[in-house]
Specification:
- The protein is of the alpha+beta class and 123 residues long.
- The strands form two sheets. Strands 3, 4, 5 and 6 form a four-stranded mixed beta sheet that branches. A two-stranded antiparallel sheet has the order 1-2.
- The protein has helices at residues 18-30, 42-49, 82-101; strands at residues 6-7, 14-15, 35-38, 59-64, 67-77, 104-116.
- The protein has one domain (6-116): Cation efflux protein, cytoplasmic domain (Alpha-Beta Plaits).
């Protein structure tokens, strides 16, 4: 299937990069209570070690024919209901990406490869 990456416009072509959709997805996911952070791969760790922040870490985006499929890897907050958190992430990301880009989000897959356990503080 041929990829169509242009959004319709009377004045010319509009192109939205996958990275923009990935960043919007990650920021929307981080707004959900119970998400401690996004899980990044080795590329994210290298970027952060060199002082560059990777806002799209833990997100994979596939855009085809003005439809987007999004995969996110989140680190859940210990004590949260991870199923409810993941469902809220799906809804929040779908809404944010559709409103920001005009793309139709057909899938939001959420993977939870770990949880964040806060360190106990001694007083």
């Amino acid at each position: 299937m041929a990829k169509k990456r242009e959004l319709p416009s009377e004045l010319g072509a509009i192109h939205i990069a996958n990275e923009v959709v990935a960043i919007a997805s990650a920021l929307a996911a981080m707004e959900v209570k119970g998400v401690a952070s996004m899980k990044g791969g080795i590329g994210s760790e290298i970027s952060e070690a060199t002082g560059r922040k990777n806002l799209a870490r833990g997100v994979k985006v596939d855009i085809n024919d003005l439809e987007a499929a999004i995969e996110l890897q989140i680190i859940g907050q210990y004590g949260s209901n991870l199923q409810e958190v993941a469902q809220k992430v799906q809804k929040t990301v779908k809404k944010a990406v559709e409103e920001m880009t005009g793309l139709t989000v057909v899938q939001v897959n959420v993977y939870v490869p770990g949880i964040h356990i806060p360190q106990e503080t001694t007083a």
